[in-house]
Amino acid sequence: MNEWTVTHIDEPMLSFGFNQQTEHPKDGLFLYGPPASNQNPARMDVGVIGTTEGIRRYESWVKSLSSTIAAPESGREENKTMWPGFQAAFGVPWPVKPFASVIIDGELLSRRIRTEDRHEAIFKAVDVYSDALRKYLREQEARPQFWFAVIPEEVFLYGRPKSVVPRDQREKSTGAIGPKAAKSILSRGSMFIEEMEAAALYDYELNFHKPAEGAASRHRSGATGGARDHPDAGGVRGKHTAFVAGPRVRCLELSHY
Length: 257
Fold this sequence. Notes:
This protein is an alpha/beta fold. It has helices at 25-32, 52-66, 86-90, 106-113, 118-139, 153-158, 179-188, 193-200, 209-217; strands at residues 14-15, 21-22, 46-50, 100-103, 146-152, 223-229, 241-245, 249-253. It has nine helices and eight strands. The chain is extended, with a radius of gyration of 22 Å. It starts with 13 loop residues before the first strand and ends with a strand. The relative contact order is 0.14. The model is unreliable at 220-224 and 231-257 (pLDDT under 50).
């Protein structure tokens, strides 16, 4: 019988500004700031894609992120640390007003995410964002360092694998083929380009983030982040889920605002 052994590995020292090192990232950032690098931006030039209300909520979140936040009264002692503000921590200003704003049609997005065919719903809801981004890149020269896509609560609710849209709220599907025909086309192929294109949307997962990340990664102007627009997030509360996509795609959670 093999015996298991446990080896304790000490925390590595992390480098911060002024050539200082500490074990804890919070201590290092708050005391010394990030290490100097020619890759550090002069400021956070962020583009935002969303409804008018979504962009307003983004601005509210950035405003709270830029200010000091008191340490929580409850919880683990090591987590009871005040937030000094984004610029104080990272040495870079984050303007409340976005570098670029792209407003999408909230009613169109709502109708699309409620489409009865869930693959079509996800695919066409993502198109609302990707079409807006493509239009901006065609017509505008200013390039944000990355984009935030602010996602309404209903997209978060109905854009997940097991979500179900209430029957009385569903929008009629406009797809030319159904899931069964699409599966056959995807596995066997088709001589007709139209059929392949119609079947392509069924190749995506029933998860809004996955095709959204894929669509964002095709735009090489910068990374793209997404944030869930919660109805309680008008001030400093509300849950946000985010993805960041660019040449490489990764996911992250934004802190509550």
